[in-house]
Amino acid sequence: MPCSAERPAALAALETELASLAGQGLQRRRRIVEGVCGPLVEVDGRTQLAFASNDYLGLAGHRDIVAAAREGAERYGIGSGASHLVSGHSRAHELLEARLAGFVGMPRALGFCTGYMANLAVIPALLGRNDAVFADRLNHASLVDAAVLSRAEHHRFPHRDLAALERQLARSEAPRKLIATDAVFSMDGDIAPLPGLLDLAQKHDAWLLVDDAHGFGVLGPQGRGTLAHFGLASPRLILMGTLGKAAGVAGAFVAAHETVIEWLLQRSRPYIFTTAAPPLLSHALLTAIDLIERGDARRAHLNALIARLRDGLNGLRWPLADSRTPIQPLIIGDNHATLAVAQALDAQGIWTPAIRPPTVPRGEARLRISLTAAHDEVQVERLVSALRALA
Description:
Layout: H1 9-23, E1 33-34, E2 40-43, E3 46-50, H2 63-76, H3 84-88, H4 91-104, E4 108-112, H5 115-126, E5 132-136, H6 141-150, E6 153-157, H7 162-171, E7 177-182, H8 194-203, E8 206-211, H9 226-230, E9 237-242, E10 252-256, H10 258-267, H11 269-272, H12 279-293, H13 296-312, E11 327-333, H14 335-347, E12 350-351, E13 354-355, E14 365-370, H15 377-390
Parallel strand pairs: 3-12, 5-6, 5-7, 7-8, 8-9
Antiparallel strand pairs: 1-2, 2-3, 4-10, 9-10, 11-14, 13-14
């Protein structure tokens, strides 16, 4: 049958929308990176000093983890072959779940392929129609999507506003309630008021789901995360952590009371109907968790770099957000102005991503400066000097 030359109207509509994104300074593009993740990378054929990754402890290319991945490939092969509940749950997966549960001080953990998938698994498994989710307005998109998928009432409270959240909880007649929050907010770098949130969860008989993607490995004693940073423990707590950021590999986990984890294993669709991650990654992650646990020197160096950056950019006409974490957002505001600063840095061989709506609120476009323990003081000073000159 001959192909039709007719041009779909829907295709023209998409092209119009793409042109509109470009006109607003909102169109995104991918950069092609070669080599090992680190401060100096080949980007689109040019060497760049990168402040762009979430490899906070500089473990993504660590030789011990690379060796463990090779060993895992030799022992387990590459693919898992099936979902965990069919035949894909290997000894490596089991060992990693036990190690993670013990590391974060929870009774049990469950592994997932990504953090996005983990969040999509939790909320719809625990809540349904007539239940209620209470979510910080700046939560990650995965928590927003999970709330929508659950079909529960979705209440969003102003960022870190405990008083507003308490009013919402007090008005709710939902039989089951869940408070959802980032621990470290991915575009602002600030930390959720977790002790106050847990108090409200206890007072109003709610779950508290904490997405610790950007705190795990960085905060708390031995990098055990934001809950450990605050010394919190409760059967109401559900912790989600990712393993492709500070841990330097890939994947995610949910840790909670044994009953919660068993329920997720039985009822969470993203877990049940997904092929298990390659076992070699779990084998490599066992080494990564050991390095995190022994990584106090890395965290101390990282904290020193954060202080140096903040001191160097103090008084700049573009303010840094109030963050003491490796995420250091420089708020510029206008989309086109933010792109212009990012491009000017790029011309000097410095890669700092421009973040624009809808990832951040309108009028709050920014450079998301991401520091890692693999950076050194000279590299941070180079960024500071370049930004001061541009300002």
